[in-house]
Design a protein that fits this description.
The protein is about 40% helix and about 15% strand. By secondary structure, the chain is of the alpha/beta class. A 7-stranded mixed sheet has the order 3-2-1-4-5-7-6, with helices on both faces.
Length: about 280
């Protein structure tokens, strides 16, 4: 059976880091994959040579390029402004309300309209902490769940990272990579999802080339800022290392029995054929 899966992200490149393998896997199996972005990511870091074109325009183009690589059938933007990673309420700019400051009901209605139009079977959001705490990511969690209730979308998965593996990887990376002085590794002790919460561990090693190409499509986010960006570091990994490091994607579905762990992102759809959880 063909299903429609809507992946909701805050900014272009978030899909490449967290869900690209799952998107490519589903599209390759014949399902309809839709990418929805709350903002154009215009407050992200970028190299000087791209600033003149308008970063939002560049990142929109990069999002479409990434979506084509992953086999998406549609890309849509909710039309909010990028809030930036700053504490406190973000000011409106150019008459466009920052996503983190948007009315949840209003934003959810926009997203619910797309869910209803697409007759989506599955929606992905983020975990309650928004992964690493970006205010737009936290808002994706709030807006996504409300929109799913409005539209009657049966399954909501929270895209996350296994925190245990993340902390282990950061420790290993610190031996070969010098993190910038402002980098606080301890802050990740409460970031993303605890291993005990994860309900879907999706293998995507077969789609590592698509995921790597999706990351590479977001060129503006590989070269901006004073220190090396995550996308650049991942892009330099040899193929076998990239396949190993980026070969699994993790999700949380609230309300499932403790200890449930699925490999198929569609396993818990009401009309899905029953599949035994992995252990």
């Amino acid at each position: 059976m063909r299903h429609t899966c809507l992946f909701f992200h805050a900014h272009p490149d978030d899909e490449a880091l967290l869900t690209a393998g799952t998107m490519a896997r589903l599209a390759g199996a014949g399902h309809r994959v839709v990418l929805v972005l709350a903002t154009a990511g215009e407050r992200g870091l970028a190299p000087q040579d791209l600033q003149g074109r308008g970063l939002g325009t560049v990142r929109r183009e990069e999002a479409h390029a990434s979506a084509r690589i992953l086999g998406c059938s549609r890309v849509a933007f909710l039309g909010y402004a990028d809030s930036g990673h700053t504490p406190g309420p973000a000011p409106a700019r150019g008459g466009t309300r920052p996503f983190a400051a948007a009315d949840v009901e209003e934003a959810a209605a926009r997203l619910a309209g797309l869910l209803t139009e697409e007759r989506a079977d599955l929606l992905t959001v983020y975990d309650p902490a928004g992964g690493y705490g970006h205010p737009d990511h936290v808002q994706v969690h709030r807006v996504g769940y409300r929109a799913a209730r409005m539209a009657g979308t049966p399954v909501v998965l929270e895209a996350t990272v296994d925190r245990t593996l993340l902390l282990r990887g950061l420790r290993a990376a610190s031996w070969v990579h010098r993190f910038p002085p402002q980098f606080d590794r301890d802050a990740f002790r409460t970031a993303y999802g605890a291993r005990s919460e994860i309900t879907h561990r999706v293998p995507v090693k077969r789609h590592w080339r698509a995921k790597r190409a999706s990351l590479a499509a977001h060129l503006s986010q590989a070269r901006g800022g004073d220190s090396e960006r995550t996308l650049a570091a991942l892009g330099r990994l040899p193929g076998p290392a990239f396949r190993q490091v980026m070969g699994t994607e993790w999700y949380i579905q609230r309300g499932l029995p403790a200890g449930t762990l699925h490999r198929d992102p569609l396993a818990t759809l009401p009309n899905a054929r029953a599949t035994a959880p992995s252990r």
